[in-house]
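Reviewer 2 asked us to include a model.

Predict the structure of this chain.
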Amino acid sequence: MPARPVILQIIPALGTGGAERTVIDVAEAIVAGGGVALVASEGGRLEAELMAVGGEPVRFPAAAKNPLTMLANVRRLQRLIATRGVGLIHARSRAPAWSALLAARRASVPLVTTYHGIYNQKSRLKGWYNSVMARGDLMIANSHYTAGIVKARHGIADDRLRVIPRGVDLKRFSPAAVTAERRAALRELWGVSGEARLVVLAARLTRWKGQHTVIGAASRLLAKPEFADVTFILAGDDQGRAGYRDELAARIAALGLGGRVLMPGHCADMPAAFALASLALVPSIEPEAFGRTSIEAQAMGCPVIVSDLGALPETIALPPGAGASGPFAQWTFPAGDEEALAAHIETALGLGGDRLAAMAEAGRLRVASLFSKTALQLKTLKIYDDLLDSTLAPDFAANSSQNEDSVSSLDRISV
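Predicted model (structure tokens):
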């Protein structure tokens, strides 16, 4: 083992998304802990951020599902392991995980996998394909919901499974860090006045993210005089789904919501978006494996309403010791139920200042305790250390300037 552990993460591409953001966070921690962070992918928007934190991109056909290409990828990975002294591979998607599994076994290096999503499993063949994520030396699930799915599907033993939720950078997602100029710039970009109250859904434009449900809920509210100053923002790329975007635009027009429900595309400044928002929505109509925007909004002190599927309720569960009237008690709704969502939005936007302040404080404390980026980094490095007999996590804790949450908070994190 080299003096500086070399960790190779592999993911199809470095575009936007929770899995991709986690790759950058972990690469940052590896470097701060004294290791070398390689990331094999087909590239993408986050490649520059990877290099900025000291990680090294390796262009690699990681998204390939062609069996011949996947076999060729095994040889490519074996060469990379040999030339760079890779000590551990961390695979974050199924197709590259198959290549990584074979390469790791041939090179006798540990393989870690992370189950980032709830994969379709309607046939035995698909179940076998998905099972690669449970074949490594150790598997990470990004929520307790995901862990339950994995155990039920693949029978993975508890000693080979860890739950590490995705993390928020509490320095970046801090109300104090977002300047008035950034807020004003985003309002101008979105074309909304300084008086408008904003209800924000931040998600790529795909049907299961629930944009239709939000449009239906908005149609029940925006005709009321008390909502005359409210604008709904559906922020996200269509990622090639022009037909779905056109469908949403047509429904907005048919309901007479033009100018009141906006689709401004990708938002590059999510802290500013949640700083502007009076309310954030995560209305997914299929189970989420986690729900990153829910914790990002809470970190910014923004109230959140989520659907009742998958891991989303975990992100807003009542804090320990809170009663039925605790600050998160009423913020889930039955997925796809436009009327129920509208009722919750109406309640949320009608809350007084004291109640909103209590929600903001409780949400930020919960994120700091359970969902911080530092916690994710330390927990992941601890796994690497256990498999490599290295000291990445202690060195990261000593060297990292990210002290927004104490390392001792790890004692409060369920794993």
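The first strand starts at residue 6 and ends at 10. Residues 6-167+372-412 form a domain with the Rossmann fold fold (CATH 3.40.50.2000). We have added this to the supplementary material.
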